[in-house]
Amino acid sequence: MQFAHRLEPLQSNVFADMDRAKGLARAAGQQIIDLSMGSSDLPVSSHIINAIAQSLSDPTTHGYLLFNGTQAFRQAVANWYEQRFGIPVDPETEVLPLIGSQEGTAHLPLAILNPGDYALLLDPGYPSHAGGVYLASGLIYPMPLRAENKFLPDLTEIPGQVLNKARMMVLSYPHNPTTAIAPLEFFQTAVEFCLQHNIVLVHDFPYVDLVFTGVAPSIFQADRDKQTSIEFFTLSKSYNMGGFRIGYAIGNAKLITALKQVKATVDFNQYLGILNGAIAALTGPQTGVSQSTAIFRQRRDAFLNALHHHGWNLPSPPATMYVWFPLPSKWCDRSIEFCTNLVIKTGIAASPGAGFGKHGEGYVRFALVQPPSVLEQAAHQISEFLKTQ
Ligand SMILES: Cc1ncc(COP(=O)(O)O)c(C=O)c1O
Predict the structure, then answer these.
(1) Residue having the nearest C-alpha atom to atom 6 of ligand 1
(2) CATH at 374
(3) pLDDT, tens digit, for every residue of 210-262?
(4) Residue 189 pLDDT more than 80?
(5) Domain check: are 208 and 333 in the same one?
(6) Ligand 1, CB cutoff 6 Å, lining residues
(7) How far does the centroid of ligand 1 lie from the alpha carbon of residue 28, in Å?
(8) Is 90 exceeded by the pLDDT of residue 338?
(9) Mean pLDDT of 356-373
(10) The ligand 1 atom nearest the CA atom of 320
(11) Which residues have C-beta within 8 Å of that of residue 84, sequence separation ≥ 6?
């Protein structure tokens, strides 16, 4: 059998390797404390579940849902965004439901790139951003994120020959995995840069609500007329609905149409009942969102305090559900080996920084998806493990 060349870069997947290491640890009798995935363990609010349950018993929800979902969903998204950021959104032309932000961000390159065109991606960054570019036979220019530059890319570093063929830039702040927030001034610079070079600006914004310190801006605060930008949102994080697979894009009407055209070939949208759950989430009480944020803040503090107690002093993440842990120099080019050994010897599963790109090497990401007492125990075991190395 012969397969397309575009599959080749997708064949090695650090996270699949880590899954195998987890399996080995489990088989060897380790109790796994899984901090490797940003899949929230918190409950979905009952008013959301009820909306989905009611839809399930309504046969009119059981058919195909073509094109861009329901007017009620698009209106709920437009209202939510306008209330939140004070910028109007046209529900008819500027909103598109998605089967999660990952689906949308991975499909968008098919609408923008011709083979050999460049996408400018954050490195480290969310793996499906790169995966979507590979599927579209595009080229990736990784923009390095360095701690000394507050994990923001330096746009002046991008070479002219890359810029000539660059068609899209993907940003995502608050940032997975570094937890950095981008200030509005950076977004303003990025928008100007993209307009100047005729580049589509994509902003993946799943952690819009998981902010502890400071403010996380929307890209449209820097591109109010939506001249070149599209922003991706999800209900996976704010509403703990990862398994329900529901998100949406807001953006420039031409970009929304282009993405809709790709999706019309690939899928028939998310189930209407799930869309109804999302409407309940966006229009109903937001106490669940603030409670989840408070819980992730508490977990962050518990984990960091416990690490501090064992002699590891880390800066406090301003946002997201992660801790981006810089490895001691001995491990600085071996994050995969570190994570494999850690899970086999202690049962603690984490994500190696190298899995997020070359510039993620030397770091490990811990997802705070366990209660504080478990995170404190994990911090203890991690520091004991480091002592023995
Ligand atoms: C940056 C980023 N984008 C997208 C996703 C996936 O979101 P969804 O569940 O909506 O596909 C995640 C999940 O961790 C993420 O961190």
Answers:
(1) 102
(2) 3.90.1150.10
(3) 999 999 999 999 999 999 999 999 999 999 999 999 999 999 999 999 999 99
(4) yes
(5) no
(6) 38, 100-102, 126, 172, 176, 204, 206, 234, 236, 242, 247
(7) 31
(8) yes
(9) 97
(10) 16
(11) 208, 218
| Residues 156 and 278 grouped into a single domain | yes
What is the value of pTM for the model shown? 0.97
CA dist., res. 143 & res. 148, Å (int): 14
Last residue of a domain, which of 283, 304, 328?
A: 283
Q: What mean pLDDT value characterizes the chain? A: 96
Q: Calculate how far, in angstroms, residue 206's C-alpha sits from the geometric centre of ligand 1.
A: 6
Q: How far is the CA of 193 from the centre of ligand 1 (A)?
A: 25
Look up the CATH number of the domain holding residue 159.
3.40.640.10
Residues 228 and 367 in one domain: no
Listed residue (272, 286, 295, 219) closest to 54, CA to CA: 272
Per-residue pLDDT reduced to its tens digit, 32-86: 999 999 999 999 999 999 999 999 999 999 999 876 789 999 999 999 999 999 9
Rounded to the nearest angstrom, the distance between the alpha carbon of 204 and the centre of ligand 1 is 8
| Atom nearest to 39 CA in ligand 1 | 14
How many angstroms does the Cα of residue 208 sit away from the middle of ligand 1?
Answer: 12
181 and 86, same structural domain? yes
263 in the same domain as 163: yes
Pocket test for ligand 1, best of 35, 101, 270, 321 (most atoms within 8 A of CB): 101
CA–CA distance, 327 with 311 (Å, rounded to integer): 13
Same domain, 117 and 133: yes
pLDDT band at 17 (very low <50, low <70, confident <90, very high): confident
> How many folded domains does the chain comprise?
2
Per-residue pLDDT tens for 76-124?
999 999 999 999 999 999 999 999 999 999 999 999 999 999 999 999 9
pLDDT digits (tens, 9 = 90+) for 270-286: 999 999 999 999 999 99
- Of 230, 261, 283, the residue at which a domain comes to its end is 283
Domain that holds residue 215: 46-283
Specify the pLDDT at position 12. 75
